[in-house]
């Protein structure tokens, strides 16, 4: 059982992938009073690595217990957390990435979510062979993560997997080379086919053929969103011959302006046009 599993067990919470994802959310931990402290009785010690990446200079720190080796961005577990389970051996799991809490390199240069993901991939690819305290070697050839990415808008969590697919036909993690995996080979193949289907839909669907006007008009109107609804309706009617993904690109590029209506469109409209959601799916990158 990895570190997150131990924390669930310690607090008598059922072990499940969903509960681990909740646990990795800082605000969730704070609400239920869980303090994350990797320096527990199983820790053997730690190490730190100075790592240069793009224009950043960072310190990666490690902590080891009986079950796994944990790597973090200078002990900031909310920014970046990499878990290498000693039983799985060849898989490095990125269990947490978030730029919401203010993530900086050693020179106080702020890092975005894309920087943190690229850093994690580069660090794992460069190191590959991870030594344990007892002299063992964990030879990593796969990077795994779960797509829980979201952005907050007036206390509403917007699923970035869905929004990015509406803009591009594929998710953000797919653009970095990650591919979804199922519970077996057949399940994985079905997911791969869904990627192709999503891409074809967004490559060909125009605004006028999508019936998106109906969905925009059906958004409950409030004082906060009425201007956004009028504005996006105007854009849709003026650009009806364009692809619907261009409309969502307009929404994404003006997120602050349209964030009050994104949730309705990324949920209801997304399903209506036949897109497969990859939110909370597990992805793997072979290295």
Describe the SSE topology.
Layout: H1 3-10, H2 17-23, H3 26-32, E1 46-53, E2 56-64, E3 68-73, E4 76-85, E5 91-97, H4 113-127, E6 129-131, E7 137-139, E8 142-146, E9 150-153, E10 156-159, H5 160-168, H6 172-175, E11 179-180, H7 185-204, H8 207-210, H9 212-217, H10 226-238, H11 244-253, H12 255-272, E12 282-286
Parallel strand pairs: 5-8
Antiparallel strand pairs: 1-2, 2-3, 3-4, 4-5, 6-7, 8-12, 9-10, 11-12
Helix pairs in contact: 5-7, 5-11, 11-12
Rough outline:
elongated
Evaluate the radius of gyration. 21 Å
Q: Outline the low-pLDDT stretches.
A: 36-45
Kindly state the percentage of residues in helix: 40-55%
Mean pLDDT: 83
H/E element order = HHHEEEEEHEEEEEHHEHHHHHHE
What quaternary form is this? single chain
Q: How many domain units?
A: 2
Number of separate strands: 12
Euclidean distance between termini CA atoms:
24 Å
- The structural class is alpha+beta
β-sheet strand percentage: 15-25%
- The strand line-up of the biggest sheet is 1-2-3-4-5-8-12-11
Give a short account of the largest sheet: 8 strands, mixed
Q: Can you walk through the features of this model?
A:
It is a single chain. The chain has 287 residues and is an alpha+beta fold. 42% of the residues lie in helices and 23% in strands. It is built from twelve helices and twelve strands. An eight-stranded mixed β-sheet has the order 1-2-3-4-5-8-12-11. A two-stranded antiparallel ribbon has the order 6-7. Strands 9-10 form a two-stranded antiparallel ribbon. Strand 1 and strand 2 form a beta hairpin. It is elongated and about 65 Å long. The two termini are 24 Å apart.
